[in-house]
Specification:
4 helices, 0% strand, mainly alpha, single chain, 88 residues, 48% helix
Length: 88
Amino acid sequence: MGVAMTEQWRQWAACQGHPTWWWYRRPGGRLAGAHLDAMRICEACPVRTACLEHALARPEEIGLWGGIEEKQRHRMRARRLAVERGER
């Protein structure tokens, strides 16, 4: 899948029109009410999987992507690499 196809999903993203900062934690790691709203928006987003795959492929190091935060994505990437190497 090329870059152009990879980016097409954004036009259907439920986050369109909402402030970008909602998808990032406050300094110190605290959850703001807007971040919780972003999580709810992600849950119902029609392109959530494409968004997550984008973040895993880049990788996007910060923020909420596909409803998944940084630490969770880091673990997902590590598991994928282990599977690719034939590890469990």
